[in-house]
Amino acid sequence: MRNYLITGGAGFIGSNFVRYLLDRYDDIRVVVFDKLTYAGNLDNLLDVQDDPRYRFVRGDICDKEAVARAIQEHEIDTIVNFAAETHVDRSIVDPDAFIQTDVYGTYVLLEAARQFHLERYHQISTDEVYGDVPPGRSSTETDPVAPRSPYAASKASADLMVLAYHTTYGLPITITRGANNIGPYQYPEKVVPLFTTNAIDDLPLPVYGDGRQMRDYQYVLDHCEAIDLVLQRGRIGEIYNVGTGQEMENIKMVEILLDELGKPRSLIQHVEDRPGHDRRYSLDVSKLKALGWQPRHTHEEAIRKTVRWYVENEWWWRKIRNGEFQEYYRRQYGQRRVLR
Ligand code: NAD
Ligand code: DAU
After folding, report:
1. 77 close to ligand 2 (CB < 6 Angstrom)
2. What is the pTM of this model?
3. Residue tagged active-site, from 85, 127, 189, 222
4. What is the mean pLDDT of residues 38-49?
5. 255 in Cβ contact with 303 (< 8 Å)
6. Which CATH class for the 2-181+220-242 domain?
7. Confidence class of residue 298 from pLDDT cuts 50, 70 and 90?
8. 194: Cβ below 6 Å to ligand 2?
9. Which of 44, 260, 290, 295 has its CA 20 to 30 A from that of 313?
10. Is 73 a catalytic residue?
């Protein structure tokens, strides 16, 4: 029996991971610990809310007492930390919450893991910690971190603290660094759900700059499977990259998305670029594959499957887009210069 504390479990990847665990294992208990920021949403967990192996606790990972209470009350042995501020564009406008949650919050969880002698602390990290990767290269886990946005810097700082807790205190940690995830329940500020929902409403798709930046768009359940594998078979103290190991230009992703929806390319609108925009991420995933993992979706399959989910689940995203999101969208895109 494993007792998980899934911090940030009401967000996009966390909620998919909770569902994955409950589908796959009988002998587990899963406690979601989540602050429910704008990105946290209990609708993401509606289908598991009556499962006796699942509990929800509303709390902030920066709150030491609340974290300690959750660990003791639920006899937690494993923390998987998804909780974070996650949107690069928001980190450029206002980095404060990123430093609080992604850096200080991670420290609070590490201290709790040490105090209660947990069996495992797993940190969900990102390929953005490696920074912009020049053509012809792929990042390996031993590469130095070189983050360039406030978000990436906050995640890299957290990784360094996780590694320090292993070196200094012998805390049994693992880290996964994932590429761009897409799939069900992703807040529609991120590019694939934003563009899909805009296109459904015949609104322009604001492509940053020339759109030739490269990302590795992986299906979220492939990422979940990889995290689980690292929890089962990963070596303590180690980092594992997670992605398909291939990249795709953003503009190609947009074309596939529009084709799947049957919408015209004329919806594409090139706009002023993101400041400090990383041109390319590229992960070497051979270390993870050596554990026996393979992605089940290509980029194209992942994009098409994701687009279909948004078409079929308007109940989920329409109320988000009608709420706080509208103000965010005006701030982020209202004054943005159109390039052509
Ligand atoms: P998300 O923004 O969808 O969800 C984040 C969740 O964390 C939300 O439920 C939110 O309420 C919760 N949260 C935020 N601050 C909190 C706090 N102080 N205390 C408790 N809960 C808090 O994020 P996501 O896209 O699911 O990302 C999850 C993790 O995976 C993050 O650590 C992110 O850095 C990492 N990651 C994301 C991607 C991606 O493509 N989305 C890729 C690689 C790594
Ligand atoms: O690489 C992993 C990271 O992927 C995660 O760590 C982050 O949490 C997650 O948000 C994501 O970061 P990106 O910045 O890559 O994701 P986003 O969806 O914001 O943007 C993807 C690409 O699309 C990027 O090159 C910027 C571009 N883009 C994005 C938006 C929102 C646009 O061209 N237009 C847009 O409106």
Report:
1. no
2. 0.99
3. 127
4. 98
5. no
6. alpha beta
7. very high
8. yes
9. 295
10. no
